[in-house]
Amino acid sequence: MQVSATTQPGASTDADTVAVGVFDGEELPPDVPPELAELLASGEARRSFRALALGHSGGKRWLLVGLGTRAELTPERARVAAAVACERATDIATRTLCWQAPSDSDSAVAGALVEGTILRDYRFELHKSAPAEDADAAGGAPPKRLEQLIISAPAEAETAITGAALLAASVNRARDLQNRPGNDLTPSALAEYARALGGEVDGLSVQVEGREGIIARGMGAFAAVAQGSEQEPALITLRYAGPGATGPVLGFVGKAVTFDSGGISLKPGAKMAEMKFDMSGGAAVLEAVEAIARLKLPVRLVAVVGATENLPSGRSVKPGDIVTASNGKTIEVNNTDAEGRLVLADCLCHAIAEGAERLIDLATLTGAVIIALGSTYAGLMCNDDELAERISEAGQQTGEIVWRLPLHPEYQELVKGTYGDLDNAPEARKAGTIVGASFLANFVGDVPWAHLDIAGSAWDLGRAYVGKGASGYGVRLLVELARSYAQ
């Protein structure tokens, strides 16, 4: 989809469909054809949030989109309104949609209209024998995707519009990675994708190490998860230093288990196919780093993605085995399905060794976070109040909201091992999400660190702009967090 900005009203553009927001207690904007007011007068169009009505004037179709009260308009509500309008626009075979940004709204709202539209327009058809566009073309019907989006807004919003288009494209690429099946997106394939980014994006360097390199680094926890699969694991390290960057080195760490069967502690068969999504944290990290580099944000960044499969075989790590992480901590692997924390343990140590001074990891770590928070919030656990506040604010700005859960010294008692230093899966089954984070806290030392458990948010998020399948959750949050250090 091509995205552009204009200061001209929608009626003056080449768009075949124009979307206009209407507020409670306000009349239509002055540059909207007056005959459309009849839709409001008759009740066919309403000002309540998400209400839609279609009218025709001057050779164009007009979508009147209810926004509620002006005081309630936030970037997140703008994303939702844009998604609702996009769905209707594609239903009526729109090729070029123009959104008239509400008057007196800030640039963030204009950017949110872009994000909501691009994210809603997403489809994953890589493995379809006849993608919808081809089928439509063969049948003579117009394609059911937008070709162009125009945002009518003041000139000062152009930077936000351009940046939002770039960012939303990165989110959709993360969704592509998530949606690919495990026989396609292997750890090696994810590593090749990362290498390609390093070759395409200025200022971004990428290093990939396989099984031998992981073992040579003493990453016994990561290696233990990977040993059950014939697929080569990948330790992916990305580095970026933006122009004039002077702030702390940010460290992003992503769990990328490209398929998680549970290992010897085999998962139930129902919905196991969804375990291709267990690499969602890694996808978010890769695409956030790409977006940060393409936006040329003045930050310093090191990112680590641990990619592997978790499968049962004669070589697999067994319940009761004891492995040694790269910081020397010994771990009783009492449940091989608690593998993500083993991968992350070594990756966190590696990020710190590479110079990370503020550390954030993303992982689909526990089902317990879904029980606690559903899909609305991701779980945030953090050892530093200032970092936690930055992440929470970034979540509010992007709609990728987080809820902070406590880290208390008593939880460390739960992860103490009987035969080794730590137990990866305590039997008590208390505070499962917090216990996962408490385990990881043993691998970050005194570095300010935050753990984001995105198991409830990474797919089937259910928002208007991201429905079923992969959500790309975390890309926009990490980029906004990086922006907060670029001020």
Core attributes:
17 strands, Aminopeptidase, six-stranded mixed sheet, Leucine Aminopeptidase, subunit E, domain 1, eight-stranded mixed sheet, 487 residues, alpha/beta
Note down, in words, how this protein is organized:
- The structure is a single chain.
- With 487 residues, the protein is an alpha/beta fold.
- It folds into two domains: 2-165, 3-Layer(aba) Sandwich (Leucine Aminopeptidase, subunit E, domain 1), CATH 3.40.220.10; 185-485, 3-Layer(aba) Sandwich (Aminopeptidase).
- The chain has helices spanning 37-42, 75-91, 107-120, 132-138, 158-179, 187-200, 211-216, 220-226, 280-294, 340-353, 368-373, 385-398, 409-414, 432-440, 475-485; strands at 2-6, 17-22, 52-57, 60-66, 96-100, 148-152, 204-209, 234-241, 249-260, 300-310, 321-324, 330-333, 358-363, 378-382, 402-404, 422-423, 449-453.
- The strands form three sheets. The chain has an eight-stranded mixed beta sheet with strand order 7-8-10-9-13-17-14-15, with helices on both faces.
- The two termini are 30 Å apart.
- 52% of the residues are buried.
